[in-house]
Each structure stands twice: as C-alpha cells, then as structure tokens.
Amino acid sequence: MSKLPKAHKFLDLSDYGRPLARVIANALQHTAFTPVHVTIGFIISGLIGVYCITQGYYWLAAFFLIFKSILDAADGELARVKQKPSYTGRYLDSVADIVLNALIFVAIWSVSTTNIWICLLAFLGLQLQGTLYNYYYVILRNKFDGDTTSRVFEYETPIALHGEKQKHVDILFGLYKLFYGVFDKTIYALDRQADQGKTMPNYLMTSISTFGLGFQLLVISIMLVLGLKAFILPFFLGYTVMVFVFIGIRKFFY
What we know:
The chain is mostly helical. The protein has helices at 18-28, 35-55, 58-82, 87-110, 116-144, 166-190, 202-208, 213-225, 229-239, 241-253. Helix 2 runs antiparallel to helix 3.
C-alpha cells in the first residue's frame, strides 16, 4: 500500500497480485508497451476466463481470472514507472472492469441453476461492495497522503493529459459515469459523513478490502475449482449485507 504512510498501511486482501504486477511493469518499462496495452491484456484475459467458465474449464477460468487481476494492477504500475498517467487508461480500466464483471456473472449463471434475478442482484451487490471499499480507501489516502486527485465520485470531465485525445477522455468518462454513477450516489447517500469521521483502524480496512475486485475474483476462482459454482452468485448477494454492517461500524465507532 505505497500510497499510505507506514502507520496507516493495512493488509489489502484484494491486492495480492501487486508484487507480480510490479515485476511485469518493470519488465515493460523500457519497451513500447503502454499501460493501455496492459489494460487490453487484462480484458483479453478476462474474456478468456469467461469463455472457460461457459465451457466448464474451471481451473483454466480461475487462472485467467486471477491473471486478469494481476494485469489490472500492472497497468497502473506501468503508468507510474513510465511516468505517463492518462485519463484514457484510468477510465478504460474502470469501464472494462464493470463490463467483465457482468460477463463473468452471466457466465456463472449460464452454467448453474441460479435464478436470473439472483444473478442481477448479486451483480449490483458486487458493485456496491467495490464502491464502498474504494470510497473508504480514497478518503484514507486523501487524509494522510495529501492525495487530492484520486476520487470515487467524479462529476466533471477532466482535461486530457499530454499524449491523449480529449475525445477519447470524453467518451470513456461518459461511460464511466453511466456505469458507476448509481453506485457512487448510493454509497454516498448511505455514508455522507465518512470523510469527517475518525480514522478507521487498519484491521477494519483489511476486512473491508474483501470488497476489492482482486479478492472477489479470487473467491470466484476458488469456488469454481471446488465445484461450488451454484453458490457463487448467492454468496455475493448475501455478502452484500456486509456493506451495511461496515457502514454501521464506521458510523457508530468512527
């Protein structure tokens, strides 16, 4: 968790792929590969994972879903080592994540006996979980690392950075708002005062990191290879209750 000072670093259970992501980024630092290329790589890995689920190749599906998670971290690492941040890459990453999440859930629904409404509600729950984690994590970074550029809730189209086209930023930001806006507004409505409260302890942030996409994909992968495909969507629907539990803890104690 390099974006936080030592006293407030916590074990991020969703960030297990970071060490390998750094290896990949360092290996690509002096090549023609860009962060967007890596993002495209994780999109391909995720799509292969989806295909493997539909075909019943669950060990392969687990491999490609976890590899997708590693590449998801590697694109940001590569942007940092090359010192070439871009809004294009930032929003492409987020848009790709939510689309792949939807495809993964539909694929799991197609090979299980789960009701389609459970699939839909579980997907909505999955996104709420991720939004809450991002919300609390960004607040923590803003408070202790002076990070004012990372935000969960974004309302205005940013100005394109050097090397990218404003048209691309406009399109991807529009898609970002379309896909994530309702989740951002819901979480903010549930906990408007989070940035004014006391700092949550590291153990609580570690618990909330189970809402991170990397950990979610790990759980899906484990359940697939254990033959628990029928329980994946009900699990994520049920685990959404923890959104309200964590918010309640934050409000009551911090």
